[in-house]
Fold:
Amino acid sequence: MTQIRAMTEQDVPAVSRLMGDSWRRTYGPIVGEDTAARISGDKHSPERLASDLTDADTMSFVAERTDGAIVGYAMAQFKDGDVMLDRLHVDKSEFGTGVAVDLLHAVLAAHAGMPSIALEVLEGNDRALAFYKKHGFEVVERRAAPHGAAGHSSLIMRRLLSRA
Ligand SMILES: CC(C)(COP(=O)(O)OP(=O)(O)OC[C@H]1O[C@@H](n2cnc3c(N)ncnc32)[C@H](O)[C@@H]1OP(=O)(O)O)[C@@H](O)C(=O)NCCC(=O)NCCS
Structure:
């Protein structure tokens, strides 16, 4: 069993580890181990995650197992009048269990007043692409060099929130 709740400062070290592992496993094969480790080391350091938590324009959730382990993390951010689901990562042990959709639903419910929600997914991340399509997101744009990863491209997906 897992519980979805707002992320707190106590969760920062566990979320930093989860993000490091997830980036290495998911993006290493696409952009290369070194690039994935460098970008994640910067964006998901405990200091950066703690600072994200204090940003009034972001909302962060974790999935906590009954044994206390943090097995999922989602973060959404308001940007220029729009809302982006910036991060959705679950531990591999929870793939296919419904934890990811529980986190997604927490984010959607928290932004129910917005017309739609967007996200960016790296091309080649086929599992994530399939997950988002299954949950009503559609590709609306293709973008070059996501996260500064030259030679790669990403897809912008969007979903209406009235369907939440
Ligand atoms: C993306 C993520 C949150 C989705 O959660 P999940 O529990 O794995 O998702 P689900 O199992 O419900 O759905 C994945 C779907 O992709 C399918 N799938 C798996 N591998 C696939 C592949 N290589 N190509 C296409 N589809 C694939 C699965 O069969 C499943 O579809 P189904 O339910 O119709 O069988 C999770 O995989 C994850 O944390 N991945 C690493 C981090 C990440 O990429 N985050 C997204 C950042 S944009």
